């Protein structure tokens, strides 16, 4: 077998692995994203600023900074981890003023590092960001000076895709499930086993163009019997009817 054929096969294999990785990132329930995140907030993306000093090979430098792949955003609401976010935020157009607390009446900026496969956010695009603090191998948290907001595949959610139930989850319902110790476990088949630790989310239950009713209209919490269960909302029943499922 020639070297060119081997290289081609390796290239195709890498593409397949990348596609699988992207799919696995996307198959994450928003409640799991919320519970696993150290901080969660909604932002409005700012305009990417062109670096006029880049010479012939001009490139877009986010937020007017010279650091590549960094985009400034306006923090509009914090759902979780406000204290953790404080060192990474600043008052709009004022790099010397630290932020002690968040207020929706005050315009506050934050810089988000764009991962390898993360596209630039469009100007004024609103998203919810699920962030993780950087930690050492022994799980101790790195100092504030080493912390960065990193956007990768699967840890941002466009606001237009967030349903009424998901917004309710972000405000309080997801946090309630987290505190109760009820997690969302991704599975690929139907299960009927009761658990005191998780709710099973069968990602194969709904196929495009069907709407994933578990993801968009339900959250996991601890029932009166002590077991974790899905909340049977009215929106979930309506979603099933639209999908024509029992």
From TrEMBL:
Record SUPFAM superfamilies: TIMP-like (SSF50242)
An individual GO BP term: negative regulation of membrane protein ectodomain proteolysis
GO cellular component: extracellular matrix; extracellular space
Entry keyword Secreted: yes
InterPro entries in alphabetical order: TIMP, TIMP-like_OB-fold, TIMP_C
Record-linked Gene3D superfamilies: 2.40.50.120, Tissue inhibitor of metalloproteinase-1. Chain B, domain 1
Superkingdom, natural source: Eukaryota
UniProt keyword terms in alphabetical order: Secreted
Entry's localization field: Secreted
Coiled coil: none
GO molecular function per UniProt: metalloendopeptidase inhibitor activity; protease binding
Designated name of the protein: Tissue inhibitor of metalloproteases
Record organism: Paramuricea clavata
């Amino acid at each position: 077998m020639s070297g060119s054929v081997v290289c081609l096969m390796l290239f195709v294999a890498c593409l397949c692995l990348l596609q699988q990785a992207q799919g696995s990132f996307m198959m994450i329930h928003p409640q799991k994203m919320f519970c696993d995140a150290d901080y969660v907030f909604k932002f409005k993306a700012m305009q990417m600023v062109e670096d006029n000093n880049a010479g012939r090979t001009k490139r877009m430098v986010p937020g007017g900074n010279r650091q590549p792949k960094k985009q400034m955003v306006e923090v509009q609401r914090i759902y979780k981890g406000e204290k953790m976010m404080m060192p990474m935020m600043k008052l709009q157009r004022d790099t010397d003023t630290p932020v002690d607390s968040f207020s929706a009446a005050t315009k506050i900026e934050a810089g988000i590092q764009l991962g390898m496969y993360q596209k630039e956010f469009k100007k004024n695009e609103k998203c919810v960001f699920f962030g993780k603090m950087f930690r050492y191998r022994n799980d101790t948290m790195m100092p504030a000076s080493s912390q960065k907001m990193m956007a990768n595949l699967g840890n941002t959610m466009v606001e237009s895709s967030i349903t009424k139930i998901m917004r309710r989850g972000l405000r309080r319902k997801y946090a309630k499930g987290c505190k109760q110790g009820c997690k969302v476990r991704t599975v690929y088949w139907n299960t009927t086993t009761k658990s005191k630790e998780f709710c099973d989310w069968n990602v194969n239950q709904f196929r495009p163009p069907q709407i994933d009713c578990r993801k968009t209209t339900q959250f996991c919490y601890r029932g009166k019997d002590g077991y974790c269960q899905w909340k049977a909302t009215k929106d979930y029943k309506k979603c099933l009817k639209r999908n024509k499922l029992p």
